[in-house]
Amino acid sequence: MNVTQLTHHDLDGYGASTLVGAVLDVARIVHIPRYSDVGPVVEAELKRLDKAPAPELLIMTDLGLEAVAVKFIRSFAALNRRRQEDARHRLVVLDHHASSIDQLRDQGLEPVADPEIPTLRRFELGDPNIAILIDEGRCATRMAYEHRNLYATRPVPAEADAELQALVAAVDALDLWKKERPAFAGGLALDEVFWDNVGTLVPVGHPWHDRFVGMLLRAVAGLLREGATPARVEAQVGAIRVGIVDTFMADDPADDPALTTRMRIARALARSDALFHRLSDGTLLSFGLDSGTFQRVSDLIMVSGRARRVVNVQRVGTLSFRSNDETALEGARRFRGGGHKDAAGGKLTGGSAFSLADAVAQVEPILNPPPPDPATSPFAALKNWKG
């Protein structure tokens, strides 16, 4: 069964995806930084699932449910009713925001208290393929661990399970801000490691991204399980990253271990087809790369001859152009921007973007507008006038 996970872009969201990935093969993970982006994402998922011939599993973790998300859940149930019983999709929602309960209630879904877990609320839609659990007393990572029977296809070995339990304890203490717990200091250290590395080495969208972050979180959790202090964790992160990158680059003949981890990874990123979309004029467009990564990768792309111009679009709607043929400024000017001939920036007319596909849809028609249709030109009427 094809599995997709939608999760929040923070430590708890990645903790939840790490836990799910430990017991289930997930084909695609979508990290959503802003709850305002949940609507467009779930609408796209609903359209995709409507056309999917085989049943799929969709897991949503740590996403505060707003009205549009609750509407999606109802639409998901309606979609299932229209499908043959053996082709119905599965939906698992694991969340811990009090506002989610309010939104579900506002749309007529009343919670059912769990007799064993006082803080847990379940919501029934009359479809055994849909499980909606909201627990204010647990973070999403802990919920993913405790409710893995809803989706797990394989057990976790005892040694790995102890590591995952340490991860759960640290994230739960940090995310619920339980400063009195012994695991809280480790949670703070884990959170620092997460934010320092989640977007600066292997960016979202690259096939290695979730594997890299998951390996990093589990390695730090292993240190915490051994009783490591936050200072020791900080001191060990560099070596952990090198070990992970060594694993990724083991079969790459162009790898140079004498370089920094970012320099080594940048060479692999510059060859990636997943991170870039080629626009009609040959410009390569990326989405959400941090500025340091974009600078290194864009230079490597142009040196290799893969493209003469590269543009990076951020979620907030800013664009960074790089070129080696003095066309960066020309591109930026189409987006109310400016700068140097080979390094310039601008701003999307739509204000922001939520995915690579969304960025492409906004950039392509402005950067490469279609030629005017002669039939609609002001001179067409004069040409055909017979007065």
From TrEMBL:
Keyword terms of this UniProt record: Methyltransferase, Transferase
InterPro entries: DHH_sf (IPR038763)
Top-level division of the source organism's lineage: Bacteria
Keyword Methyltransferase: yes
Any one Gene Ontology BP term: methylation
Region ranges (Disordered): 368-387
GO molecular function (one): methyltransferase activity
Protein name: Dimethylmenaquinone methyltransferase
